[in-house]
Amino acid sequence: MDDSELDPSELGTQEYWQRSYIREIENFEESGDSGEVWFGEDSADRVIDWICNCGVEKDTPVIDLGCGNGYTLTELAREGFTNLTGVDYCQEAIVLAEKVSQAEFPHIKYKVFDITHDCVKELGKFGIVHDKGTYDAIGLNPEDPKSCREKYIEQVDNLLSDDGLFIITSCNWTEEELIKHFSEKMKLKRVLPTPQFRFGGKVGSVVSSVVFEKK
């Protein structure tokens, strides 16, 4: 595990996300606005498109870690996926996700769950484990982020079925850093192309999306 850590931020605290989702619940009830998609819809849609075209069956168990408003799951449901679970450590996020999806996709299951503390055995095994931003938030936690990240990696490994895929999108860690963090438990399957920028003669990406498979 890399010894370097991110600078702590309020984005790594549960209180920040509780306040954010309280506002988004109010906005949804007032105007039907389902809320912000972290990193933008384009970033989420690239991963969704890859999942839809990677050869997995539509009844494959899928879990979204830190599901927020449930955007990824509702879009997968729209594409015909039927076995979908979203977890988040904020009750307010789960309330929002249920409100957003209940009319069109009531089969999506949502649960309050803290990936760094709760027991994953109660969730079962999944063919696809997805994360967009949750590992980032864990890394921004002001209290012992390294131990929390290590616990997260162990939990994800325990959630994966024998042929399961773990798909992670990050704006704080590079592809190389993600591969280094997860390589002890998982092996790299694919790096998903993301938009790049050039600055000062160097090329970089705004986000990194990486697919791992269970060793």
List keywords for this structure.
single chain, 215 residues, alpha/beta, Rossmann fold, 7-stranded mixed beta sheet, two-stranded antiparallel sheet, 7 helices, 9 strands, 36% helix, globular, cytoplasm
Q: How would you describe this protein?
A:
This protein is of the alpha/beta class and 215 residues long. It has one domain: Vaccinia Virus protein VP39 (Rossmann fold, 3-Layer(aba) Sandwich), CATH 3.40.50.150. Helices cover 36% and strands 25% of the residues. It is built from seven helices and nine strands. The protein has helices at 14-31, 41-52, 71-78, 91-101, 134-139, 145-159, 175-182; strands spanning 62-65, 84-88, 109-112, 126-132, 160-170, 186-192, 196-199, 202-205, 208-214. The strands form two sheets. A seven-stranded mixed beta sheet has the order 3-2-1-4-5-9-6, sandwiched between helices. Helix 1 packs parallel to helix 4 (91-101) and helix 2 (41-52) packs across helix 3. The chain is globular and about 45 Å long. The mean pLDDT is 92.
Can you lay out the helices and strands and say which pair or pack?
Layout: H1 14-31, H2 41-52, E1 62-65, H3 71-78, E2 84-88, H4 91-101, E3 109-112, E4 126-132, H5 134-139, H6 145-159, E5 160-170, H7 175-182, E6 186-192, E7 196-199, E8 202-205, E9 208-214
Parallel strand pairs: 1-2, 1-4, 2-3, 4-5
Antiparallel strand pairs: 5-9, 6-9, 7-8
Helix pairs in contact: 1-4, 2-3
